[in-house]
Write a structure and sequence with these properties.
Layout lengths: L15 H11 L7 H14 L3 E5 L2 H11 L7 E5 L4 H8 L4 E5 L21 E4 L11 H11 L2 E5 L7 E2 L2 E2 L6 E5 L12 E5 L5 H8 L5 H5 L19 H12 L1 H24 L3 E2 L7 E2 L5 E5 L5 H10 L15 H6 L1 E2 L4 H9 E4 L7 H16 L2
Parallel strand pairs: 2-3, 2-4, 3-13, 4-5, 5-8
Antiparallel strand pairs: 1-9, 6-7, 6-11, 8-9, 10-12, 12-14
Helix pairs in contact: 1-8, 2-8, 3-4, 3-6, 9-13, 10-13
Bound molecules: pyridoxal-5'-phosphate.
């Protein structure tokens, strides 16, 4: 059956192919060409970070972070269990152990109050994940990290143009990782960026991204040849991807505004379901400006999520849930451990439902989603 209302529809701003054609015409297709520079400048002025580097994914930016902090076997990295696998993989690849901490009831972000007791003498990094583009409690996390001399890598995969007390997500920790995967707000198919806020990491980040060489310095004329400096890999995207991404960056404000309008329309139309206790709507704490990356509802424990998903399916609407918690997954059990209970993570992941949200979702389509949810809750 072909669905009438998909969960996500990648939004094209219009100039993507034009800029790709221009990159083709310029004859410069490898990475770090003119479009990559435009994207770097854009991200630096948007976020206020010291330096930004495009990567081929957010996963790659997280892997670079683990390399930049010399994460080693025996090291521990604190993160939520309620996240995407890349948050953990990046550190497991370096032999480290992910240590999972439960989430907050309201934002579904790592509970900052539970981090301190997860710290051991082996802890090296804390990875706050800004779920749905809503910030973690960064003041507490940053002051704990500075007290305990730990590094902070923000997984801001979902966080472009969202902020915490006026600071862009990804620009608060030592490093931040953004995603431009086609399911995110701003896209290039696959794509990401590393935001670097610690001046001392800038040079090494360039080297690690360019196969462990000082090629970037060579191109700036700072050295007369480039050589193998340390262990690295190829983390940069080609120019065609950067050209595509540039067309998206030009429209960032429009994208965010349109998504916010849809998000708010869901919120106001579903309020009555919250008032009668059937669902819980997203909570945006004071000081957090979100980017409408996602609209989810948390169902009351008495409701049958599978039945609601089937109802959506029967009406040609795709609604999904996530995450399957990492701590109880096969790889999570093998490579990680929990610090404390995971009650909230387990409870929320069994009750969360994500509704379709993309830039051109029409009012009519959205109304059908809302009506379907209401009807299916009435039957329960
Ligand atoms: C999407 C996502 C990633 C991975 O991003 P890619 O660009 O696909 O590698 C990592 N962490 C979180 C929280 C994400 O949502």
């Amino acid at each position: 059956m072909s669905y009438k209302t998909p969960f996500n529809k990648p939004y094209m701003c219009g100039k993507e192919l034009y800029y790709i054609a221009e990159a083709h015409f310029n004859g410069k297709l490898a990475g770090d060409g003119p479009y990559t520079s435009l994207c770097h400048n854009f991200l630096e002025s948007l976020s206020g970070c010291k330096k930004s580097l495009l990567t081929h994914s957010c996963t790659a930016a997280l892997e670079m972070s683990a390399m930049l902090f010399d994460v080693q076997p025996g090291d521990e990295v604190i993160m939520p269990s309620y996240t995407f696998v890349s948050t953990a993989n990046a550190f497991v690849l370096r032999g480290a152990t992910p240590v999972f901490v439960d989430v907050r009831e309201d934002t579904l972000n790592i509970d900052e109050k539970l981090i301190e007791r997860a710290i051991t003498k082996n802890t090296k990094v804390i990875v706050p994940v800004h779920y749905a583009g809503v910030s973690c409690e960064m003041d507490s996390i940053m002051s704990l990290a500075s007290l305990e001399k730990l590094k902070v890598v923000e997984d801001a995969a979902q966080g472009i143009q969202a902020s915490y007390k006026g600071q862009s997500l990804g620009s608060i920790g030592d490093l931040g990782a953004l995603s431009f995967h086609e399911t995110k707000n701003v896209i290039s198919g696959e794509g990401g960026a590393l935001l670097i806020n610690d001046e001392e990491l800038c040079l090494r980040a360039e080297i690690i991204r360019e196969k462990g060489t000082d090629r970037s310095r060579f191109f700036r004329g700072e050295v007369d040849k480039y050589t193998w400096q340390e262990v690295g890999s190829s983390f940069l995207p080609g120019e065609l991807i950067a050209a595509f991404l540039w067309a998206q960056f030009e429209e960032l404000n429009t994208i965010t505004q349109k998504r916010i309008r849809i998000w708010e329309r869901y919120y106001s139309n579903l309020k009555d379901l919250e008032d009668n206790g059937q669902i819980r709507l997203p909570i945006i704490p004071e000081g957090c400006d979100h980017n409408a990356h996602m609209f989810y509802v948390v169902l009351d424990g008495s409701l049958d999520r599978d039945r609601i998903l089937t109802e959506f399916k029967n009406n040609g609407i795709v609604s999904v849930f996530h995450y399957v918690p990492l701590h109880s997954s096969p790889a999570g059990l093998k490579y990680g451990r929990v610090a404390g209970g995971m009650e909230k993570t387990d409870s929320v992941s069994a009750r969360l439902l994500r509704l379709p949200l993309w830039v051109d979702l029409s009012n009519d389509e959205q109304d059908r989603v809302i009506d379907t949810l209401k009807q299916s809750l009435q039957k329960q």
